């Protein structure tokens, strides 16, 4: 019968923290991915409006239409800048979280390795004890003959 590993609760706690970090990382990554797609869409919209302006300038374009298009571009540029800032903050948070997750993974592996070493030591100790008992039994049998 194996004895309880003395760091079992600490290992379970570290493993639980690691799982929570993984969940948080996945959620943050999904949010990061959505913002990245949103940023790409905004840039595409801006380029589309700029292309539209260029096409209409070749023909004839009223001043009020041009003003509206430029206002749309300005709004998109502001939105792109805000989205880019949010994107960069998410990226930074992801990097920090990834570092924490790596550290926690290393910690959990360390505890598992310590546990495996302890179990191996205990198994070898039990085998030595059994061999010693068998030697004693064999010695008694030999002495009784």
From TrEMBL:
Biological process per Gene Ontology, one example term: bacterial-type flagellum organization
Top-level taxon: Bacteria
GO cellular component: bacterial-type flagellum; plasma membrane
Gene3D superfamilies: 1.10.287.1700
Main location: membrane
Cell compartments where the protein resides: Cell membrane
UniProt topology in membrane: Peripheral membrane protein
InterPro entries listed in its UniProt record: Flag_assembly_chemotaxis_eff, Flagell_FliJ
Keywords: Bacterial flagellum biogenesis, Bacterial flagellum protein export, Cell membrane, Cell projection, Chemotaxis, Cilium, Coiled coil, Flagellum, Membrane, Protein transport, Transport
Basic and acidic residues bias: start-end ranges: 122-139
Spans annotated as Disordered: 122-145
Coiled-coil regions listed: 11-38, 87-114
Family per similarity comment: Belongs to the FliJ family.
Name assigned to this protein: Flagellar FliJ protein
Source species of the chain: Sporolactobacillus terrae
Gene behind this protein: fliJ
